[in-house]
From TrEMBL:
The lineage of its organism: Eukaryota, Metazoa, Chordata, Craniata, Vertebrata. Its main location: other. It comes from Gambusia affinis. SUPFAM superfamilies: 6-phosphogluconate dehydrogenase C-terminal domain-like, ClpP/crotonase, NAD(P)-binding Rossmann-fold domains. This is Peroxisomal bifunctional enzyme. It is found in: Peroxisome. Monomer. Residues 474-577, 614-699 form the 3-hydroxyacyl-CoA dehydrogenase C-terminal domain.
């Protein structure tokens, strides 16, 4: 709602009240309309201030209402009522003015912002455009290039930048509501003719066509199939080419297309999914609201390879004191240089102070003795990790949390090397660890709720989106990825090429196809793991080179590694590069010949594989494993999986994540297609639909938020 009060005798004050962000729900919109009428009808009131309760102006339209039937007064007539008011209306912007909140502010005649406020049009991230006049008013106020930038990227601007752009009239370090009241008194009775943004002509720079062409090219490059950014450009174009009223009609038409799109539904689902994962729960019943984290001031990192360096930087930037350990002098000195460079670049980019003094380097593991939390980031080798955990258990102070950055090894096996297995958890960062937002916090059967809560809290302080997951080979992300990779290899055996598979996946919206990613991360990484698992050679002589444990296996990746083709780092992998370390993937005729020889050697006849088969086999097996993970209680809900895939594996956000995507395709269709491929490839277990997937499909595809009711709680692992 919005409540009305009178301050200093002549100022009508309208306060938005809808915690936590004063979103414009039906009740708030109704409240604004009612209180505006009241302020305009009271003769003593000479001017009006609109503000938000609890230091937040307004977070925009109430996203929770988007799925429901529209109730209450619509936003557009509401903002027109304010702009047309005969008394000056001043927006007092504290905290945030986002989306519909900024549109509300732009309909006011003046805007006063607190210096810490952030303003923006983030609708594009929800698959929308600013549909309450934002696309028509902003270009009139700040010009076309700045409006295109803000509306198509959704970026938030500081109060200082908003002042520079002309979005706000004044910035104050003091109480913005008090400042707005004073300001409102000072403009009472003044003409409002020059203050109604909708009456401004839209600036027309001479190179207008080129500006729009560039904007379209830019969004096409960055949007990977998302429709909202390009539609935002079209709406701003209408502001330049049409009179205001017609521009508003065009904005409404374009908004309606987006609002009713599957992409908007996916992005809005994802918005809430990303917030839902912080309310974690584990298979044995521990929960975010009943588990208290331990205080962590001093952290330590063991092993300063690529991952360890990124983790060190991220911890230091988050304000932790860090002990960084690398036992070899030479590697330690290289790591120091590497970390310093990363910190300097980070400080420059983010305009924050350098965090060098937060880090102490050492060659000795003893240096971590008084750390509250230690993250082991040595090579992915169980024997080595076990030794490190035995050492840590002997050295660290009682109560210290011992974490491993393994990307898939057994957390419980590591915990069993220590005297306090309840204090062992996985903290699986994604490369580059100081950039990537995702953190899988992996609890073993013996990890205490307090240990999970502490790792989740540390991740949050590091600016990560932390997702709590159970302990199994590959956890959530890499376990699902295995199925996806496997299908991609099988498709090559059957007649596809890496570029064909990648093109299909990139058209779907992945930033890079599976083979390009594999070249980027290094083919040798998976090879080492497969070797350690004893997969690289057939179990016994006489067993087919393409069978392991009775199931189909493709040795293609192993064969490339045996030839020294590790991807970008060696200049050759699934593609060729102009030099080792080169970035531009080029089709490699050698690889095509190699695939032909391989097929001939194994009696495989290449066939034409269409787009649909590539997509279905790669995605549906990955999704199927996701259902198996839910069934096993490794992830608490589909949101956890979707957030992991969007933030860690480049799944296109406008498709919501793999589980949401499956819900949109229809679970019965996913089952049907998996069964179809399973009949053709009975030796591929990943094509066998999981029990949970079948169960959900059989009860008529319940909405994704209902799945948790069907997922059986696995028995406690404790
Ligand atoms: C005609 C249509 C015209 C306009 C369309 C729009 O206005 S669309 C909405 C545009 N606004 C946004 O996109 C803002 C979205 N919110 C945010 O970016 C952040 O929440 C925000 C406001 C920067 C605050 O961030 P913070 O990290 O402090 O908190 P958190 O994100 O965890 O949010 C706290 C809870 O508030 C809920 N919430 C936030 N914004 C909205 C909203 N616009 N509508 C409804 N609910 C919102 C959020 O879900 C959190 O609640 P939770 O229960 O944890 O999910």
């Amino acid at each position: 709602m919005a409540f009305y009060s009178r301050v200093s005798g002549s100022v009508g004050m309208i306060t938005l009240q809808n915690p936590p962000v004063n979103a414009l729900s039906a009740a708030v919109r109704q409240g604004i309309v009612d209180t505006m009428h009241r302020a305009l009808s009271e003769p003593e009131v000479k001017s009006v201030v609109i503000c938000g309760q609890n230091g937040k102006f307004c977070g925009g339209a109430d996203i929770r209402e988007f799925g429901a039937t529209m109730a209450g007064p619509p936003l557009v007539p509401m903002v027109h009522l304010i702009e047309a008011a005969s008394k000056p209306v001043v927006a007092a912007i504290e905290g945030i003015a986002l989306g519909g909140g900024l549109e509300l502010a732009l309909s006011c005649h003046y805007r006063i912002a607190h210096s810490k406020a952030r303003l923006g049009f983030p609708e594009v991230a929800l698959g929308l455009l600013p549909g309450a006049g934002g696309t028509q008013r902003l270009p009139r106020l700040v010009g076309v290039p700045a409006a295109l930038d803000l509306i198509t990227t959704g970026r938030h601007v500081t109060a200082a930048e908003a002042r520079q752009l002309g979005i706000v009239d004044e910035v104050t370090e003091l109480n913005a509501v008090d400042a707005a009241v004073k300001f409102a008194q000072s403009v009472a009775g003044k003409s409002l003719d020059a203050r109604r943004i909708s009456t401004y002509p839209c600036p027309r720079p001479p190179d207008l066509d080129a500006i729009f062409e560039r904007a379209m090219q830019q969004v096409r490059r960055s949007s990977r199939g998302a429709i909202a950014p390009g539609t935002c450009v079209q709406a701003v174009h209408a502001a330049v080419t049409l009179p205001y009223a017609k521009g508003m009609e065009r904005e409404r038409e374009l908004f309606s297309v987006l609002f009713n799109s599957g992409q908007a539904r996916a992005l809005q689902y994802y918005f809430f999914a990303q917030r839902a994962v912080s309310r974690w729960s584990t298979a044995n019943g521990a929960r975010w609201d009943t588990s208290k984290p331990r205080p962590v001031r001093k952290a330590a990192v063991i092993g300063l390879g690529t991952m360890g360096r990124g983790i060190t930087v991220s911890l230091a930037q988050a304000g932790f004191t860090v002990v960084a350990v690398e036992t070899q002098e030479k590697q330690l000195s290289e790591a120091k240089q590497g970390v310093s460079g990363m910190l300097e670049r980070g400080a420059k980019r983010r305009g924050v102070p350098l965090a060098h003094d937060k880090i102490k380097y050492s060659c000795s593991v003893q240096a971590v003795a008084d750390a509250d939390l230690v993250i082991e980031a040595v090579f992915e080798d169980m024997a080595l990790k076990k030794t490190v955990f035995q050492q840590l258990s002997a050295i660290c102070k009682p109560g210290a949390l011992l974490c491993t950055n393994t990307s898939g090894l057994d957390i419980d096996e590591l915990a069993s090397q220590t005297q306090s297995p309840e204090l062992v958890v996985g903290m699986h960062f994604f490369a580059p660890a100081h950039v990537m937002q995702l953190l899988e916090v992996v609890y073993g059967p013996r990890s205490s709720p307090e240990a999970v809560a502490t790792a989740m809290q540390v991740g949050k302080k590091m600016g990560k989106v932390s997702v709590a997951v159970g302990n199994c080979r590959g956890f959530v992300g890499n376990r699902m990825l295995k199925q996806y990779l496997e299908q991609a290899f099988f498709l090559l055996e059957e007649g596809a090429t890496p570029e064909q598979v990648d093109q299909v996946l990139e058209e779907f919206g992945f930033a890079m196809g599976v083979f390009k990613v594999s070249d980027l991360s290094g083919l040798d990484v998976g090879w080492k793991v497969r070797k350690a698992d004893g997969l690289v050679s057939p179990a016994s002589t006489g067993t087919s080179a393409r069978i392991r444990g009775g199931s189909r296996y493709s040795p293609l990746g192993d064969l490339l590694c045996e030839r020294g083709r590790f991807g970008q780092k060696t200049g050759k992998g699934w593609y060729q590069y102009d030099k080792p370390g080169g970035r531009v993937a080029k089709v490699d005729p050698w690889l095509h010949g190699f695939l032909e020889d391989y097929r001939a050697q194994h009696g495989l006849v290449a066939r034409r594989i269409d787009h649909q088969e590539v997509l279905e086999r790669c995605l549906y097996t990955l999704i199927n494993e996701g259902f198996q993970i839910l069934q096993d209680g490794i992830a608490a809900g589909p949101e956890d999986i979707d957030v992991i895939y969007v933030l860690g594996y480049g799944w296109p956000r406008h498709r919501g994540g793999p589980m949401f995507y499956a819900s949109q395709v229809g679970l019965d269709k996913v089952v049907e297609r998996l069964e179809h491929y399973q009949q053709i490839h009975p030796d591929v277990p990943g094509l066998q639909p999981s029990r949970l997937l079948r169960k959900l499909a059989a009860i008529n595809n319940p909405a994704i938020h209902k799945w948790r009711e069907v997922i059986q709680k696995p028995r406690s692992q404790l």
